[in-house]
Queue: 2 jobs
Job 1
Amino acid sequence: MSITVSPVKDSRGNIVGASKVARDITTRIESQTAMEKYIKNLETLNTVGKSISENLDVQGILQRVTDATTLLTGAGFGAFFYNNSDEKGNSFRLFTLSGAPRKIFDNMAMPRHTDIFLPTFRDKKVMRIDDITKHADFGKNAPFNGMPKGHFSVASYLAIPVVSKSGSVIGGLLYGHPEAGKFTAEHELLVVNIAAQAAVSLDNSKLFEQVKSLSEKKDEFIALASHELKTPLTTIKGYLQVLAKKEADKMSQLFVDKSLYQVEKLQTLVEDLLNMSRIESGQLNFRLEVFDIKEMLREIIETFSYSSQSHRVIEDLGNNPVIIRGDRQRIEQAILNLITNAIKYSPKAEEIFINLEVVDEKMTLRVRDKGIGLTGEQQQQLFTRFYRAEDTKGISGLGLGLYLTKQIIDRHGGIIEVSSEYGEGSEFSFTLPLALQKKNIEKAI
Ligand code: ADP
């Protein structure tokens, strides 16, 4: 009731009485309470929806769903049971529980293939029963003929199947309350909707697990295969090198040279795979030393000038030594990757450009080509392993070179960058800290 009391005054302003108005506000309070409940339900629904769609872990999804739906339905307890049925199928497996201590299920048989449970677990039916103890199928099954002793007292019963996209019943959400008639059609609707959402998340999490395990298998395979390939390749190369030194007719000499060239190519590929495996398992080690990267570049360029018939290298390496601290072999590998790519991906060009520069205690190496170039989208994916742009058909490669190069430069505290225009050409550059202050360089060499 809402009561308003107002004073009643005479013509001189004296209070001579009081008037009171009483109003029945039951409906107003009821609708306010209903509204508050509705908003609370919405909030719960929102958070559960968000958390289950973001979750990829089965336990997490099912616990959130069981907790939230137990709360929303006001059930005495809620539980998710896996549909564990084999051919004879006698048990469902309790997976998550809410609102009641787990030990109440410990000494109890699980729900069985009885007429009460089967419609949910086999026929995908929602069961909402006001008083299960009065149900026609209740108490018919031995050995308990009803609820086992010590069972959480259940009158109101609600069971909702969780059905996978494939149509199979993953399990069931079961709710109980000691009083009769507790679960309404709205409760049923709420849980049915959440169960559908949970089923999608469970399907995704299964897929995710499969993909994860496949990807792990692939990595294991690559590690094993590259390791096994390495030994016979080294042996073949050794024999070929011995043969190459022997006097032989022109044709044999040519074939031995060609074989050596191909074996070396194979070795690089295998080494890339092996290094990738080492990076993924955190086992790529570096042997640091202080050296002149300009000298290294000069040697690399010289070798390229002899071996590349297609491109000329235009270089500008500056006049002074550029001393860095790093793993000689890995840095060389990074540089070789960039130069090889510049040549490989500019088949119609005749030149590539290499520039070395020192600014602010850092060195920057730029490798530029006038080749096929890269779109913005392609540039974003370049450094991920096995990535190859669409227009590389006919150009051999595994898509590992830039991934390895970036790992090497990152691990040396450097930065690798690309700028490119599709159809015009690309420039790859990396920056590394110098090992010594400029003024100390001369002393060092
Ligand atoms: P691979 O050359 O073995 O394919 P990389 O990791 O070295 O592997 O390069 C990944 C991809 O990046 C290449 O497949 C190619 O699509 C692109 N790419 C690399 N360098 C260049 C370049 N200089 N110009 C154009 N595209 C390039």
Job 2
Amino acid sequence: MSEVRKGIEVFGIVQGVGFRPHAYRLASERQLIGTIANTGAGVAIDVQGPRQAVADFLAHLATDAPPLARITGVKVRDLPDRANGNLRILPSREGVERRALLSADVAVCDDCLRELADPADRRYRYPFINCTNCGPRFTIAHDIPYDRHRTTMAAFPMCPDCLREYEEPRDRRFHAQANACWACGPQVALWDGDGRCLETSDPIAEAAARLDAGAVVAVKGLGGFHLAVDATDDEAVRRLRRRKGRVGKPFAVMAPDLDTIAAFCDVGEEARRLLATPERPIVLLPERKPSPIADDVAPRQARLGVFLPYTPLHHLLFQACRSRALVMTSANLSEEPIAIHNDEALRRLHGLADLFLVHDRKIARRCDDSVVAVVAGRPRPFRRSRGYVPVPIPLHVEGPPVLAVGGELKNTVCFTKGRLAFLSQHVGDLENAETYASFEETVAHLQRVLRIEPEVVACDLHPDYFATRWALARKGVRCVGVQHHHAHIASCMAENRIEGPVIGLALDGTGYGTDGRIWGGEALVADYAAFERVAHLAYVPMPGGEAAIREPWRMALAYLAHHFKRSLFDLAVPFVEQLDRGRADVLLQMLRRGVNSPLTSSCGRLFDAVAALLGIRQRVTYEGQAAIELEMAIDGAQGDAAYPLGIVPHGACWQIDTQALFEHLVADLRQGVPTGEMSLRFHNALVHAFARLAGLVRERTGLQRVCLSGGSFQNAYLLAHLQSRLLSEGFAVYTHERVPAGDGGLSLGQAMVAAHGR
Ligand code: ZN
Ligand code: ZN
Ligand code: FE
């Protein structure tokens, strides 16, 4: 019988996910001989055997791949037969080309959890148990190929038992790069607030006891430290909030299992699936009241961000804790990057944490938890980070290699290569100097592990953004400025794998416009190469510029002054009656003289103005707070009643006029209409207006497809209702499910626009 020999290359996420043992098993079952190796490009296989057996091997290679593998391509070529040999896995070699994709971090698997709980197992209660199917990846890798000596596990030589598992192709820890046990692997320790190691035989049990007593404990996780407290302990949560200086921003809550979560949140089918995925994101769920969770965990929110344990350490902590719910919030001060190193945590969290539950496995990459909501039955990422990064977003077209540097807030960067887009983990707000270093590290690391030499660097048009200035300072590459809302719409098109032109409704807070004004309530006709602005919210001034973002009452005053002029002081509504007349006059002067009052068409600022006018929030402590609280204020109000919003022709396009909206709001306020009802009518007004606008654009252009993007679509009511309204009017509607609708998804769109640029 004739023998054949094939050289096979497999591309994608095939390293550190058990692909070589899988190939080894397939080959040995069919009595093939040859070699299997990780390379810089993926996995290289050289197999020889009877023609039928080799064909059978090939047929199963991709289809039966291990659960964490993501295959993006397979190349097969014929090789000359050779003399007899055996079947071997070769040590990794470094190819010239690095296409091997690194896997994301994976929550501890059920097999490992069983061993963790088994007193007879040699890893009983070992906090770093992992296997080929689970454990850290991205956050411990310095480089590729993904091999132990290129990870932070290099510091832990394997003991003979671990090594045996590692080398045995039939073992479920065969080539598990983070393999470790009590004898050879990382260990935990408990430190006091000053970094002194506490004498205890069980640091986890001791930490749990202190949590139960109300302490704030910094817990080292996969991509950084968390600050933990008992989520049911009002006093402890208040203490954490006070120390963290995070006045209103909600904390995430970790609970040991789905049943526990279901006891205080409404968990739908899709949410249940998301919570239990190996990515283990924080899922935003409606909180059931009365709730055992302290009010200060998520003040003025109807939703709670909850997630399940994803490291063995988390599981052990819950086994030792009385509390069934722990606040687990990123360990940082306000918007600084999350702390990852032990000494860094001690320094930066000094005074924040009473204790530090640390370990000696280093974190190579900072990576915050991911956050997802479920809207209209689908996952909606708010933050795409740990568990998802660096898994690429598949593109429908191939372009030149691009680096897109993202926006200013919730920054991410994006590299493209071939038909793949690699979004970085959440970098954070580049308004903070502390985040700059993290931004540069993120770019350098991704560039290294992806081996991408960008030909084009894409950035926002805003001349003062840190990322834009950074991009413009690059030498030897072409820099392309991309309009913010064009990038949002392109991001939505890209993840939906469609070509333009489309009708793009881009609703968000802040984006630099081509006219130098601040856009944010925009209707575009766009493809990747270009866009036309066909409609927008009518401009209003933002008194004090940036200050108007922090103080929504300024926007309410600006809108009232715009629509009612001096007679605004005669409006008998609580907002006006409670105005500080002195400060209001200063602002009105600024507006009259046009001093420090940039014009904006922002949807976010309109939300702010309405929230302030309704008495919901006059000042914010985090981005989007007023809009979120205005959405939450709907609180069960239902119906289709809407305030009028005028659409008026304006040159070659349309403007959305807010005069009638504010007249009706003022009238309802005077009649004492419930706040929830007013919030509902305001949301409906936006839904109706943008649906009508889409209709007008369709009449003019014949376009049927609408993309919804921008941070305002993190508003569940707005997204769900506008989507269903547009669908009922016969539009094809595209929304975000893989990357955030907010600025966290911006870099993907920038990359697509730059790749199509002239
Ligand atoms: Zn496992
Ligand atoms: Zn060991
Ligand atoms: Fe935006």
